[in-house]
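Students often ask why we bother encoding 3D structure as a string. The short answer is that it lets us treat folding as translation between two languages. Here is a chain of 69 residues written in the first language.
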Amino acid sequence: MFSELQHWIVLAVLGDANLDTIEARIIDPAPIDNEHRSALWLYAEALLERRRDGRDAMPAERELVGLVS
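And here it is in the second language, the structure alphabet:
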């Protein structure tokens, strides 16, 4: 479940979603405890920060979701 949610977060970030959207559509409805919810929120925020800073295009995350091999 957790890795599937990470997958959806990566796709959302690559699709230019903001943190509010990711939280509302992916994190909040997920059937997970608050500790995992917080971890996903931090994961999303870190990916968004990398995107904002113009750092690499998340090659590891792209591989995670099958966009590169």
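Translate back mentally: The first helix runs from residue 2 to 14. Keep this in mind for the problem set.
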